[in-house]
Amino acid sequence: MIGSRTLTGQVIDGRKIAGDLKAEVVGEARDLKAAGVTAGIATVLIGGDAASHAYERRIARTAAALGVTWRQHRLAAGVSQARVLAEIGRLNADPAVSGILVLRPVPAHISEEDIFTALDPVKDIEAVHPENAGLLALGRPRYVPSTPAAVFHVLDTWLAAAGEDPAEFYHRSLIAVVGRSNNVGKPAVSLAYDRQAAVESVDEWASRAGRLGFHTRRADVLIAAAGVPGLIKAEHVRAGAVVLDVGINQVTDPATGASRLVGDVDYDAVVPRVRAITPVPGGIGPVTDVQLLRNTVAAARGAIRARAA
181 in the Ramachandran plot: left (φ > 0), alpha (ψ -120 to 50) or beta? Predict the structure, then answer.
């Protein structure tokens, strides 16, 4: 259970944590450049999904700030599977590209599985290729997907600031992960296992069955990653828990028509109950962006080692 040192309602500043992490990645990218290598990320965007376009812009800004080159590759929504695979093949062969990110969602007629399998595993910085997903599940990751990596970087950073011993904290804690996506929920479970915490995985179906609170109210750490705005209410959270909200959902006020971003957590209702919580926006998102570019730099470093072998 949570220790006696309580920080009820503390808001974890993801932008501050991201800023500190940026300084590390800038140094890593600078060292690579001194060795004659520039890390480069290529994004592949198929169609016109608004959230994907917004994420693409964030990647461009973060890459520029960190000294990583960015290449934009956009394909029409009606593009053929063969054309997408050909584009992936060209990026696999391009020595200036160290990391490839296929932005999701992809159109329904495109096989996500086939695209991910076509990626060069060394350039697959989100660990969606079967080889990389398997290594992650085995606890020997080549890369940790950026969002779950950000979740645990934020948690580890907060634990240090709170004076907690991370190993002791994880050994005594139950971590509940709400959401089972391949890019967030499942990898987050693997990372919690790696820290030797007790782990429970549920999704929105538990809510539909009226059982969500049964699982989440016992958790010392609650990771909300279901992609359902406001799914986690006050009654779902144990007093004194740490809540990490991964959800980024755009909602529209029916009265005004104004849009805003909200998380999977009903923030105003939950914040009085918790020891610490990440907001949306300004929590996990900024750290995710930096972690993605950190993986890109790591991929460039790995390519150097591969050429030297």
Answer: beta
Residues 35-57 have pLDDT tens digits of: 889 899 999 999 988 889 989 99
Q: How far apart are CA 1 and CA 303, in angstroms?
A: 43
pTM above 0.70, yes or no: yes
Cβ burial 138-147 (10 Å sphere, 16+ → b, else e): eeebbbbbbb
Q: Is 235 helix (H, G, I), strand (E, B) or coil?
A: helix
* CB distance 233 to 270 below 8 Å: yes
Report if residue 157 sits inside a domain.
Answer: yes
- 232, 275: one domain: yes
Same-domain pairing of 152 and 267:
yes
101 and 183 fall within a common domain: no
5: in domain: no
Tell me: do 174 and 225 sit in the same domain: yes
Q: Other C-beta atoms within 10 Å of 89: how many?
A: 13
Please say whether the beta carbons of 226 and 177 come within 8 A. no
Closest among 227, 266, 242 to 175, alpha carbons compared: 242
In single-letter form, the type of residue at position 201 comes to S
Provide the number of structural domains found in the chain: 2
Q: Are strands 242-245 and 276-277 parallel, antiparallel or unpaired?
A: parallel
Final residue in a domain of this structure, among 78, 99, 126? 126
d(CA 219, CA 180): 17
Q: Which residues of the chain have pLDDT under 70?
A: 1-8, 306-309
How far is the CA of 14 from the CAs of 116, 156, 247, 278, in angstroms? 29, 12, 14, 7
Model pLDDT, residue 16: 97
Q: What is the pLDDT of residues 220-241, one digit of tens each?
A: 999 999 999 999 999 999 999 9
**Does residue 139 form part of some domain?**
no
Model pLDDT, residue 8: 58
